[in-house]
């Protein structure tokens, strides 16, 4: 399969991730992602903070559309992956997320 070919993966029932919460998921290729519920909309980024090695799903806090890394209190916009507050400067990798048949699914 070429690098340009995208795969779809159903992750979990949408009701399993309440609004304002984060959960980790592991993709078949071993990458760990963080999935966020922001006001009933789902977003996904790489789980590891791009500034340090903190897990955003385990150690981060979701405040609106921003996740705050507990290590140095930098933030990222989970809807775009863009850094917010310093010391975060490198954007997070993002993934297309959608709900199909009641399940949160991702394109990777």
TrEMBL record:
Domain Rieske: 9-106
GO molecular function terms noted in the UniProt entry: 2 iron, 2 sulfur cluster binding; metal ion binding
Family annotation (InterPro entries): Rieske_2Fe-2S, Rieske_2Fe-2S_sf
UniProtKB keywords: 2Fe-2S, Iron, Iron-sulfur, Metal-binding
UniProt keyword Metal-binding, yes or no: yes
Pfam family name, one: Rieske
PANTHER family: 3-PHENYLPROPIONATE_CINNAMIC ACID DIOXYGENASE FERREDOXIN SUBUNIT (PTHR21496:SF23), FERREDOXIN-RELATED (PTHR21496)
The protein's name: Non-heme iron oxygenase ferredoxin subunit
């Amino acid at each position: 399969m070429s690098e340009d070919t995208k795969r779809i993966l159903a992750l979990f029932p949408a009701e399993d991730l309440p609004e304002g919460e984060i959960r980790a998921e592991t993709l078949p290729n071993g990458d760990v992602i963080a999935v966020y519920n922001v006001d009933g909309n789902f977003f996904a980024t790489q789980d590891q903070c791009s500034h340090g090695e903190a897990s955003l799903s385990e150690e981060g806090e979701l405040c609106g559309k921003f996740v705050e890394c507990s290590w140095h209190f930098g933030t990222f916009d989970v809807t775009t992956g863009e850094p917010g507050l310093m010391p975060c400067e490198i954007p997070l990798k993002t993934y297309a997320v959608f709900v199909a048949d009641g399940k949160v699914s991702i394109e990777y």
